[in-house]
Amino acid sequence: MTQESTKADGPRVGVLALQGDVREHVAMLERLGAEAVRVRRPEEFATVDGLIIPGGESSVIDKLTRMFGLADPIREAIRAGMPMFGTCAGLIMLADRLVDAIDGQQTFGGLDVTVRRNAFGRQVDSFEGPVAVPSLGGDPVRAAFIRGPVVDTVGPDASVLAALDDGSVVAVEQGNLLGISFHPEISGEPRFHERFLQRVAERIAVREG
Ligand code: GLN
């Protein structure tokens, strides 16, 4: 076992590890039997069959991925259909359009949505609560929101997986891309990671014919 990855029989999945809550995602992936690889360089990214983009600070993730030569390979992989799962800042990175971005902030894109950063008011910028996600089946998910974004508009190519009682969209999906405003890896909720790993398994199966 190396420091950078863990041995498992499951698929080899990356967690973008330049900034943000990387450890919690690695732990969740390992719990679900995947091999988790911390991705900081293009050479590491080239070895994985899916990528999780963690929460953190999206403008920093944007700058660092450009600086480390990862932004363009990630964009190409999205176009080629690699499954990716973004939580919070990760959702921001997967959005085609942003509201309240900092000057010059870029995203990878791929989700036909407009995402508003830091969308909850100051008093309620962090909270935890149940969110119904019908397509996951079963009980509502326990969702931790930490200065999270919301999805302002959803284009025709993306679909809504979950909204709060006030109508704020907090989970979307488009093809192999999944983006959510909150942190299931912190509240110990495995079903989004399972859904992502299912996409990864399907893609491996297609590739291996
Ligand atoms: N507010 C952060 C941003 O704009 C996201 C917060 C988070 O990922 N927990 O990138």
Automatic annotation (TrEMBL):
Pathway of this protein? Answer: Cofactor biosynthesis; pyridoxal 5'-phosphate biosynthesis
Active site annotated at which positions? Answer: C88 (nucleophile), H183 (charge relay system), E185 (charge relay system)
Its UniProt entry gives the catalysed reaction(s) as: aldehydo-D-ribose 5-phosphate + D-glyceraldehyde 3-phosphate + L-glutamine = pyridoxal 5'-phosphate + L-glutamate + phosphate + 3 H2O + H(+); L-glutamine + H2O = L-glutamate + NH4(+)
Q: Does the keyword Lyase apply?
A: yes
**Family annotation (InterPro entries):** Class_I_gatase-like, PdxT/SNO, PdxT/SNO_CS
A biological process term (GO) from this entry: pyridoxine metabolic process
State the PROSITE patterns in the record. GATASE_COBBQ, GATASE_TYPE_1, PDXT_SNO_1, PDXT_SNO_2
**From what superkingdom does this record's organism come?**
Bacteria
Q: Which GO terms describe its molecular function?
A: glutaminase activity; pyridoxal 5'-phosphate synthase (glutamine hydrolysing) activity
What GO CC annotations are associated with the protein?
A: cytosol; glutaminase complex
- Similarity comment: Belongs to the glutaminase PdxT/SNO family.
Q: Assembly and partners?
A: In the presence of PdxS, forms a dodecamer of heterodimers. Only shows activity in the heterodimer.
Q: Function of this protein? A: Catalyzes the hydrolysis of glutamine to glutamate and ammonia as part of the biosynthesis of pyridoxal 5'-phosphate. The resulting ammonia molecule is channeled to the active site of PdxS.
NCBIfam families tied to this protein: PLP_synth_Pdx2 (TIGR03800)
Name-wise, this protein is Pyridoxal 5'-phosphate synthase subunit PdxT
What organism does this protein naturally occur in?
Microbacterium esteraromaticum
**What is this protein's gene name?**
pdxT
